Amino acid sequence: MKITLSLILSMLLLASCANDEPASPEAAATPAASTAMISAESPAEEPIAAADGAAFVEYVWHKEGENFSQEALLEKVVFWNQLIDAGEYEINRANILFPREATENYDFIWVMVWPSVAARNAGWAYWAANDEAAWLQEVEGVFSFDPANAYLFASATQRQPTVPATTNVFENQFNFCTFNDGQGAAELAAYQAAHVDFIQEYEASSGPSGYWYTMLDPTFEPPAPRPDFVWLDLWSSAEEKADGVEYYTTSELAAAADAMATCDRVGFAGLNIRS
């Protein structure tokens, strides 16, 4: 998908205007790490391939520079896409995430979706040999990143959206969860089964939605305490997220989630920049 500067600017304005929303209902059902988890030392060189319906998602922390602006960021997005189009990269999709709550770790996160670890490693090697110097010159003073802060997860989609996305803005929420005493994989599986029914009931009441979720498994060793699982919720808009959260908070499923796990949740406004 070709993205022009004017189109991307309008999409970013939509993302920045979306209201911050409370935590997701579905998120309450999953366990806990912190933003410190969301670096890129190369993962194992073994040619790990994604299972059917899976992918590898890499999150690269970025810090704004003194010349940063929304327009400058979007100009660099266009330049980056040109590099990717001209180079030897297997990138299925790319997004930018803007945190709903400020953190010292990053100002925004650049996300790349790869078909395999081998593709990811080959992409970074090609980048270092061919495009890195031009990119660093292009973004100097606008923003910066440290490859050590690139975090790769295996992603296994558990639910597809009932209604496909019609815009390039979205909301998401990471849920880094730790099982409570006496809880484990069996309880998570039971929760996921109940979650299927819950979403069906929600959509029967509120109409079809763009909600979907995926489970993330780090390919690196996360800081202690390591979460037992990472559940990522996604919505097509802030309004859809707010409506879903409100429906969820008084449900039996929310109580079951609290009994099963303790979760650290981190929300973002998202902008798709390549698909």
Brief rundown of the structure:
With 275 residues, the protein is an alpha+beta fold.
Structure characterization notes:
The protein is of the alpha+beta class. The protein has a single domain, classed as 2-Layer Sandwich (Alpha-Beta Plaits). The protein is 35% helix and 29% strand. It contains six helices and eight strands; from the N terminus they run H-E-H-E-E-H-E-E-H-E-E-H-H-E. It has helices spanning 5-17, 70-86, 117-139, 185-206, 238-249, 252-260; strands spanning 54-64, 93-99, 108-114, 143-159, 169-179, 212-218, 229-235, 261-274. An eight-stranded antiparallel β-barrel has the order 1-3-2-8-5-7-6-4, surrounded by five helices. The radius of gyration is 19 Å and the shape is globular. The N and C termini lie close together (6 Å). Mean pLDDT is 86; it is low at 1-52.
Count of β-strands: 8
The top level CATH class name: Alpha Beta
Main sheet: strand order: 1-3-2-8-5-7-6-4
* Helical content (DSSP H or I, runs of 4+): 25-40%
With helices defined by DSSP (H or I, 4 residues minimum), what is the helix count? 6
- Report Rg: 19 Å
Report strand %.
Answer: 25-35%
Amino- and carboxy-terminal Cα gap: 6 Å
CATH architecture: 2-Layer Sandwich
Q: What key phrases describe this protein's structure?
A:
single chain, about 280 residues, Alpha-Beta Plaits, eight-stranded antiparallel barrel, about 35% helix, about 30% strand, disordered N terminus
